[in-house]
Amino acid sequence: MVVMSDTKKMTWDLSQLVEFDDTAYIMERMQAVVKVAEEFRAKHRGKITQYDAKQVLETLREVDRITLEYEGPFTYAHLFYDADMTHPDASKLFNQFMNSSTQVNQLTAFAELELGQLLKEKPELVEDPVLAEYKHYLEKMVRQIPYMLSEAQEEMAIIKDKNGIRAWSNLQGDWLSTRTFELEVDGEVKSLPYGEIIQYYQSPDRDLRRRAHESVYQGLAQDEILWATSLRSVCSDHLEMVKLRGWETPMTQSLVVNDVDDETVDALMSTIEKNVGVYQDYLKLKAKVLGLKKLGNWDIIAPLPDSPERKYTWDDSKAVVTQAYDEFDEEVGQWMKDMYEKRHIDAVVRKGKRSGAYCATWHKGETAYILQSFNGIMSDVFTQAHELGHAMHAHLGTRAQNPTNYQISYCVAETGSIFGELLIADKLLEEAKTKEEKRAVLATVIDEFGEAAFQVSTRVWFETLLYDALRDGKHLDGEYVSKLWLQARDKMYGDAVEWLPEMKWWWTFKLHFYMPGFRYYNYPYVYAQLFVYAMYRLYKELGKEFVPKLKALLAAGSSKSPRDLAAEIGFDITKEEFWQKGIDQFKEFVKGFEATL
Ligand SMILES: [Zn+2]
User: Mean pLDDT throughout 430-437?
Assistant: First the structure.
């Protein structure tokens, strides 16, 4: 329910990002930074390997200074484009954004390589008190050193990947985007692209949900040779790189990037494995609520029958979300109010706007901007709370850290946002007037966790099975890959779900499995869910005493490892007992859900 008079309030004001809100000026600023990058290159290229601690410090500070100085125009350009692609200035700004970013990256790529070289020869620099501010950043660089190839090999890999695994990955994505699937809706047969047909997965009409799944996966099955060849190529290439770079396991690369370790991810994944029954119990309960003997795979994320269709105006949503944050902490509550008052949220639904939602940090402004399309349903309120949780992270992190120390690991990046969702869940539960309203809120929370923690875990297992099979010399054709997928899937769902036979092709569409040069994309989602649920449990125990702990964690940005950040709250993430706390909180929500039946 969107009232016309809300339109201005719901449109962001990007003028704060720049000195002059003028397209020509913003274009010129984005061009100017290329010149700055050229000067930076002329000044440092070939010299960094000889720098002492003080010179390294000055160079890193110089990079941070430049980042902050030009961040505004760049942020302006990409936000402007995402909100209104059809605006005549949008592509102009966005093209300049892309050109300038590429040029700057190319011109400055040497700096990290040379710094890596320097650290390889003088690892003691990491401990130098002069560089204390950048200590963890340097530690992360040192961790990468043993896996680096020679400069010539690195260059060769980039060139070969372009027409090798990158091409396979692009082929998968491009092919998927040209597929259409037929579906009869209200007596009319429609031919829909993938992005559109999936909306019917959440239709209240059970038969429609089932037919949408059938159509998609029968369609995808026809191209099994293409999907299997792409996947096999990308995975086989990764195994070659594992050997060449000396990564200990196929997961090592991802662990290094995410700043976590084997012990932690092992403890996390084996906790999930021990608790598949907890998820299966919930799915069986959901079947009961839907009046079914067993859930079909097309029912897993289905809406509950007779859920109250409560609608929210922009002001309703703002009130409930800001109040939730305000009750958590007044300072945070004030920041969240500012996000609305200063118009940092673009929530209007308009043609030519990027779908989905995100939060972009504006480091220099010590704040953030949020994009979403608000239609006034409950999940929009959750999305708003989620993105504002990212904004809370940004408000705390940018005040405390330089840009180099605010490159958050995927494992930590969702901490504020998932926590924010739980704050809003609390608030909505408190406000719920009927059992049905309460049940709808809990189902939203539980289904979200079910997907992000449990369903996503099957992808981690699946990926491991792929590498194991390749190492065993198996040929991964479509049927064989499907067999592995079923093995991972059935370990999670047991007998709780009835699957359409064509669901064995589920793996074919998932972009994550085809990502070139970056593998094991999925476990950080699982990490984030369980971590935040464990934290939320602690919040329930400690109350206000917990608040400064969360604020300190978010303020630390990437200046400490996820393991150290957790240790400061008293959590040992290398232990299964810790991750079990997250599961226990999930069980609490399920218990609450059961009580509404
Ligand atoms: Zn998020």
Answer: 91
